[in-house]
Structures are given as structure tokens and as C-alpha cells.
Amino acid sequence: MDIKPLLSAIELELQRQVSRLDQPRTRPFHQMLTYHMGWTGEGAGPDATGKRIRPLMVLLCASASGGDWNNALPAAAAVELVHNFSLVHDDIQDNSNKRRGRDTAWVIWGAPMAINVGDALFVLSNQAIIDLKEHHPAEAVVKAAEVLHNTCLNLTRGQFLDMSYEERDDLTVDDYWPMIAGKTASLLSACCHLGAILGGADEAKQDAYRSFGQYLGLAFQVQDDILGIWGNEAVTGKSAASDLVEGKNSLPVLAGLAANKKFAERWRRGPIKADEVEEIARLLTTEGGYEMAYNASEQMTDLALLNLREADPQGEAGDALFELADKLLKREQ
């Protein structure tokens, strides 16, 4: 299946939703959103917009469930707007100056204005999901809205845990899973669930699609943790030292702390310096951090694919869904 028409339709639908702010008095505000979305400003273009994986998952799941993906476009836009609202706020909370190689919204317009940009994206996502009423019965629209709103709450739970963990030195692997379930897996799960609802899948198939997205998100995040320490910098585009230097409580790190050997001893003494990274990564490998994370990634991958097979996606969209899952679950960047 050629996914280019889907990606083009997603972009047009996103622009249509954001255009609600394109009024004379709020045009500069509208331009802030179009900048963050990657459409305008220095560096605008495909590299700035991101891959749009989440809305694509909505459309593929809808089509693979027997529906018309065109009629699921408002939901696809809604999840991408939610994703971007969280990114704008994350950048402020994490004090991040760059996103996708460009200055972040708060760097350009200040934190108060950027908070409002994030708020606008959140509200637009809620308006987008209601647009489903043009092609779907009220029951499906309400169910889709409920999924979206529950997911937004889960995102805030995950972000709370992530921020609260920064000051703790007693974290375990058991603390890790609820955090990434909220921050990463919940939105991917919602994408697949929404697509199944709008495609007309029965309850059992909806649950299989939802679980597929959940395990896909968990596997994706664990792989990100592995790449953040042992990834090829030429492939990932970021320093493999960054996660260790930044003191990120990733799964390999928590596994290493649980082993309570030389890695744990050094980690607890304070921040890792860049010139120590190679040796610290080697210690973490020797003491089981890599193996534990790799095995967890494999387990989540197997569960994701098991649930996708149970969902039994049909047609070219079904084939494309398996291809996309394979690409996401075997990535190097």
C-alpha cells in the first residue's frame, strides 16, 4: 500500500484544524502553531514536521478494520495535535532549546506564550475529534472522545512520574513501566484503538488493536533507551553518551542499579562525565543492563505482534500495518 496519499491527507487535515486560529487578531498566534508543527519558519519541511507515525497508525487501523480511512482523518489529526501539545510543554519543562534541529517555541516567544501554544493544540485536538460526527454515529464519536481524553490524562500521569523521578535515587525497574506506559505507550495504544473503533471492528478486535499499540509503545521506548546508550551516533543522529551524561533513569540504568555492582557504585557518586561514558557503558553491559533491556524489548515486541495477529488486519492496509510495525520494532534510530 502506498502510504503517501495518507500522509498528504493527514497534513491537510492538520492544517485545516489549526486554521481555526487563522483570524486577523490571532494570526501571529496561528503562526506560532504553524512554526511548531514544522510548516513555517526557518528549517520548515519534512524534517521539522516529524514522521506522523501516530496519525498514520489511526488511518491504517481504520482501513484494516474495514472502514474508509478518509472518514478517520479528524481522529488522526486529534492524536497528532495531542502529541504536539505534549511536546511544546515538555520542551518548557525540560528546558530544551532545540527540537528537530530548530529553536523550540518557548525559546522564540517565551515560556508563557509557548504554554498557550500547547494549550491551543490541546483544545484543537478536542475540536478535531468532534468533527468525526460528519461520518460516524454519535456512539462512535463519544467512544472515540473518551479514548482520547483518557489518553491525555495518562500522558499527564506519565509526565508527572518522569519529572518526579528526576530527584529520586531509590527507583527500581518496577517504577519504570508505569512511567513509560503513560508517556509513550498510551498514545500509540489510543491510535490503534481509535482506528479500530472508526473502522467498525468488534470489541474483541478493538481490544487486540489497543494492546498491539500498548506493547508497540513499550517496545519502542525500551529500544530508545538502548539506542541512547549503545546506539550508533552516525545512525541515530544524537550522541550515545547523552542518556548517561544526562542521568536518565532508563531501563538499562535501573537494571544496572538493581545489580548493585560497580556501575551502581559509580552512578550514585554523581553525574557521569563525557570522557567516562565508554567505560560506564561497558560496565553496564558486563553487569547485565544491556541484556535485561534487550530481553524486555524482545518480549514487548513479541506481545505487540501477537496482538496484531489477533486483530487480523485486512487488505493492503493490514499489510502496511505489519510492515510499519516491523520497521518500528527493528529500528536503529
Roughly how many Å apart are the termini?
A: 24 Å
Mean pLDDT: 94
Helix content: over 70%
In terms of quaternary structure, what is this?
A: single chain
Number of domains: 2
Question: Which CATH class of the largest domain?
Answer: Mainly Alpha
The assigned structural class equals mainly alpha
CATH architecture assignment of the largest domain: Orthogonal Bundle
What do these coordinates show?
The protein is mainly alpha-helical. The protein has 2 domains: 1-201, Orthogonal Bundle (Farnesyl Diphosphate Synthase), CATH 1.10.600.10; 205-315, Farnesyl Diphosphate Synthase. The protein has 17 helices and 2 strands. It has helices spanning 4-18, 27-36, 46-49, 53-64, 73-93, 105-109, 111-130, 138-165, 173-199, 203-230, 233-236, 242-245, 251-259, 262-267, 277-286, 289-311, 315-329; strands at residues 98-99, 102-103. Helix 10 (203-230) runs antiparallel to helix 16 and helix 13 packs across helix 16. The longest helix has 28 residues, at 138-165. The chain is globular.
Short recap of the structure:
The chain has 333 residues and is mainly alpha-helical. It is 72% helix and 1% strand.
Q: How is the topology of this model organized?
A:
Layout: H1 4-18, H2 27-36, H3 46-49, H4 53-64, H5 73-93, E1 98-99, E2 102-103, H6 105-109, H7 111-130, H8 138-165, H9 173-199, H10 203-230, H11 233-236, H12 242-245, H13 251-259, H14 262-267, H15 277-286, H16 289-311, H17 315-329
Helix pairs in contact: 1-5, 4-5, 4-9, 4-17, 5-7, 5-8, 5-9, 8-9, 9-10, 10-16, 13-16
